[in-house]
Design brief:
- This protein has 427 residues and is an all-alpha fold.
- It has 2 domains: 20-145 and 165-193, MFS general substrate transporter like domains (Growth Hormone, Chain: A); 222-415, MFS general substrate transporter like domains (Growth Hormone, Chain: A), CATH 1.20.1250.20.
- 74% of the residues lie in helices and 0% in strands.
- The protein has 15 helices and no strands.
- α1 runs antiparallel to α4 (114-142), α10 runs antiparallel to α12 (316-344) and α14 packs across α15 (381-399).
- The longest helix has 31 residues, at 228-258.
- Residues 1-14 and 413-427 have low confidence and may be disordered.
Length: 427
Amino acid sequence: MRASVPSTTSNTTAPRRPTPLLRPDFLRLWCATTASGMATWAMPFILGLAVLHGSLTAIGLGLVLATRTAGFLVAVPLGGLLADRYSRHAVVLWSGLAAAAASPVLAAGLGTSTTLMAVAAAIVGVGQGACRPAFQALTAEIVAVEDRQQANAALTFSVRGVTLIAPALTALAATITGPATLLLVTAGLWLATALLAPKGTGVTDQARDRSPFHVEFVEGLTEARRHPWFLSGLAALTTVIALGYSATNVLLPLTSRDHYGTEAVLAGALTAYTAGALVGALLVARWKPRAQGWWALFGLGLYALAPLSLAFPVGAVAVFAAYAVVGVGVELFNVPWFTAAQREVAPDKLARVSSLDFLFAYGFAPVGLALIAPAAQAFGTESVLLGCAVLCVLAPALAALAPGARDFRTRHHGAPQNSLSLPKNTC
């Protein structure tokens, strides 16, 4: 039978499967996440401009941002529960619509009512928080397992791109119009988020008995405990963000002023970090090394270079280089981390487990931000930075010892639960 095949076919190759990044459903997802990322980033920047314009006080700015953070933290676990109970698309839709509706109210409160702004900001925060775990689960619905690393890299690339170019665009727009109009633009971005999100495959639409919310939340915790690498990695990530990230955010401006006498080091370091993250996203889109989990945790541990570069007057170029390497390392961790959760976690519990990721990673950041400055006053800036650097190395190193951490895989007697969640030909 093999001899009957015409010889002309022997040199032909099978047509390459089209990249998932060009499929309409993923393009809609990419556009929706990019719009939500831009709206999320823009709000505090625009409110900062409002302070400069005199339509908002510094105290009012702190209150508005605090209520937004509170809304985010409340909505993240709730969004995870809803996204596992109902359609992930529906959760993104209503979250985006809520944030879109609240943004004009936020604009209306500028210069008139800080209380009104605080309430509106809380609703915007709810929209931001609820859509995050839904987006993570929606990615797993519409992208096949073997394509998810590339897809997650494309999604994080868009987020980093926004943080790189959006400040200049927003500052340019501010020369033409005021903060209130710019807040209305964010309403349009949230509306685009709501309307562009793809339908998905409806993994959670299957008929099943609905348990009370607190029971389903415990089910999410139980599912997370089934993956030791996830719990250890989450502990490491929380440590790095709460200490390393918070330390550099609080102490980088002070170091820029005191060690170098210019704010240019602050701007240059943040730009280098974002540029490094863009490079990291491009690198990890295709690179799938052996022991990928260990490589990811190594990338997370590279964050220690940021506080180390600030602990001593090593020169501005060294600071920029350190932050660029840190940016690469962060994406070396982020993309495999999201991809592994989408692969290993049970599909009907993925949003709840993802919500734990966002809740702990972002929930402890304000604690770190609040404690770093008093700690620097009590023990000295250099000591705090060195202590944070040590913990940024130690936490990922300990996480690497957890079962399954080598390649972010949960050891079962069968295939990973999420490996069959989507037919290969759907992407």
